[in-house]
């Protein structure tokens, strides 16, 4: 697993520090630290005349990475890995839903780091694609939109993928969304069933389905791009064909429909035995749903499905969707000819409780 934290020697700081690590001293800005020496894992940087010392595994490239050092912490967060397309900022850990499969269960407190995250984004490589996730980022909508508006002006090349539960869009947001630039954001928004009661039960919030439908109308009016996301579970597997029908009829404007496998962490792990649907041995409802959506011209993608768990006919829509830092393969993958194309497994996948129908292709 790629380490998203780097050990840092203590600094006498009172506020969070955003630093871009540079190997070359050209065109330095106020947040740039320049590498002045390495000694094994120890890397020493000059930052505004002070020494900043990190301990990173040998061979890890840090040039142009952006890190955040918090007061009193012995490790820095790697907010931007310059050579990766899988950089995500955690906006908040608060959320107003309690989804059965949530991989990042909500917490009560919010640590406001919008100013720091905006600085970090402004230091990202050209054309970077940054994920914003939570919790529910739109619980802090005013600050989030203000950050996006500001970055739209200073870094119009950046694009964002924002995960949201779709419970907080209002009509007054349409103008703001248009000002930020609809082409700049892909909204990843979950819908688990076409049946109001089932969706509300899965996200554990009464009225969530209705509010979501209102939000889709607002996003449609704003011209926003939507990645509709549905996690397959035992609770909704049989309802997938009806959901495909609904998506094709009521939401044909979505950019794509991402149908996802369960992640074995957070509430997903807690509810694994009740919720994990082994689609490697029973793909029937999913296949019907894909066929219906495809016939309605809705682009479908499968996320988090190992390639060999998917019938041959549908493998072309199975994306290698698991972020590089949390991705791995199983021992039996060694002899597989599809290793390069396959999305593999989450680092925390437990094969003893997982897919029963896998094997090298
Ligand atoms: S054997 Fe491993 S690499 Fe091959 S398709 Fe299955 S999960 Fe992917």
Description:
The protein is built from 9 helices and 16 strands. Strands 1-5-4-3-2-6-7 form a 7-stranded mixed beta barrel. Strands 8-9-10-11-12-13-14 form a 7-stranded parallel β-sheet. Helix 1 packs parallel to helix 2, helix 2 packs parallel to helix 3 and helix 6 runs parallel beside helix 9. The chain is globular and about 60 Å long. The two termini are 24 Å apart. The structure holds iron/sulfur cluster. Iron/sulfur cluster binds next to loops.
Topology diagram in text:
Blueprint: E1 5-8, E2 17-22, E3 32-39, E4 42-47, E5 50-55, E6 66-69, E7 75-80, E8 87-90, H1 114-122, E9 129-133, H2 141-154, E10 159-163, H3 173-180, E11 185-190, H4 196-203, H5 208-222, E12 225-231, H6 240-250, E13 256-260, H7 267-270, H8 272-275, H9 284-295, E14 300-303, E15 327-328, E16 345-346
The chain binds iron/sulfur cluster.
Pfam families: Radical_SAM
Protein name: His-Xaa-Ser system radical SAM maturase HxsC
GO molecular function, one term: catalytic activity
List keywords for this structure.
binds iron/sulfur cluster, alpha/beta, TIM Barrel, seven-stranded mixed beta barrel, Aldolase_TIM, 361 residues, seven-stranded parallel beta sheet, 9 helices, 16 strands, iron-sulfur, iron-sulfur cluster binding, metal-binding
The average pLDDT score comes to 96
Question: What percentage of residues falls in helices of 4 or more residues?
Answer: 10-25%
Reported for the largest beta sheet, the result is: 7 strands, mixed, barrel
Identify the strand order in the major beta sheet.
1-5-4-3-2-6-7
**CATH topology label of the largest domain:** TIM Barrel
Q: Name the shape in a single word.
A: globular
Strand content: 15-25%
> What oligomeric state do these chains adopt?
single chain
Counted up, domains total 2
Say which CATH homologous superfamily of the largest domain is assigned: Aldolase class I
Total number of β-strand segments? 16
List all distinct small molecules, including ions and cofactors, that are bound in this structure. Answer: iron/sulfur cluster
Provide a count of the helices.
9
Computed structural class:
alpha/beta
N-to-C SSE string, H for helix and E for strand: EEEEEEEEHEHEHEHHEHEHHHEEE
């Amino acid at each position: 697993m790629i380490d998203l934290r780097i050990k840092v020697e203590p600094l006498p700081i009172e506020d969070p520090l955003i630093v871009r690590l540079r190997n070359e001293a050209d065109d330095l800005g106020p947040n740039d630290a320049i590498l002045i020496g390495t000694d094994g894992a120890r890397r020493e940087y000059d930052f505004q005349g002070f020494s900043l010392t990190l301990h990173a595994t040998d061979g890890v490239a840090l040039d142009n990475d952006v890190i955040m050092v918090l007061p009193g912490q012995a490790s820095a967060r790697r907010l931007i890995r310059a050579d990766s397309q899988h950089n995500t900022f955690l906006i908040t850990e608060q959320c107003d839903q309690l989804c059965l499969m949530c991989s990042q269960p909500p917490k009560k407190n919010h640590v406001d780091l919008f100013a720091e995250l905006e600085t970090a984004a402004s230091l990202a490589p050209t054309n970077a694609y940054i994920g914003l996730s939570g919790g529910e980022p739109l619980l802090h909508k005013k600050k989030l939109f203000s950050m996006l508006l500001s970055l739209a002006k200073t870094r119009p090349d950046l694009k964002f993928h924002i995960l949201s539960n779709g419970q907080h869009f209002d009509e007054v947001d349409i103008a703001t969304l248009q000002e930020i630039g609809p082409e700049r954001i892909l909204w990843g928004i979950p819908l688990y069933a076409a049946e109001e009661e089932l969706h509300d039960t899965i996200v554990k919030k009464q009225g969530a389905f209705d509010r979501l439908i209102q939000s889709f109308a607002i996003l449609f009016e704003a011209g926003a791009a939507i990645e509709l996301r549905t996690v397959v579970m035992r609770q909704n597997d049989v309802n997938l064909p009806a959901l495909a029908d609904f998506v094709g009829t009521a939401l044909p404007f979505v950019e794509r429909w991402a149908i996802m496998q369960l992640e074995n962490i957070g509430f997903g792990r807690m509810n694994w035995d009740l919720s994990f649907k082994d689609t490697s041995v029973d793909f029937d409802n999913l296949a019907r749903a894909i066929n219906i959506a495809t016939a309605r011209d809705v682009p479908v993608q499968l996320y988090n499905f190992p390639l060999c768990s998917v019938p041959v006919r549908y493998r072309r829509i199975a994306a290698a969707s698991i972020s590089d830092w949390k991705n791995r393969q199983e021992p039996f993958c060694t002899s597989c000819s599809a290793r390069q194309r396959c999305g593999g497994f989450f680092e925390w996948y437990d094969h003893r409780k997982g897919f029963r129908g896998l094997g090298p292709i």
